[in-house]
Design brief:
The chain has 71 residues and is mainly β. The protein contains no helices and eight strands. Strands 1-2-3-6 form a four-stranded antiparallel beta sheet, with no helix packed on it. The chain has a four-stranded antiparallel beta sheet with strand order 5-4-7-8, with no helix packed on it. It is globular and about 30 Å long.
């Protein structure tokens, strides 16, 4: 079994983790999320619920204004 290191950051009362090719939103209540690639292209815009997984290519993204790195 391989253990993948996950990074975490806070967004209001929720937090975000990253995994290979994905950004996961963890929240007690639905939250508005905007995920933007460094090129300016919107990768995701909408209401996210707990455990929601957004599949994205490896890169750096702004999630509600905070930078995250996806491997």
């Amino acid at each position: 079994l391989s253990i993948r290191r996950q990074r975490q950051m806070c967004i209001r009362d929720s937090y975000v983790t990253t995994d290979r090719g994905a950004i996961m939103i963890h929240t007690a209540e639905p939250v508005q999320v905007l995920i933007v690639e460094m090129s300016g292209r919107i990768a995701y815009k909408g209401i996210a619920t707990d455990g929601q997984r957004v599949m994205v290519p490896a890169g750096i993204y702004a999630v509600n204004g905070q930078l995250v790195r996806v491997k």
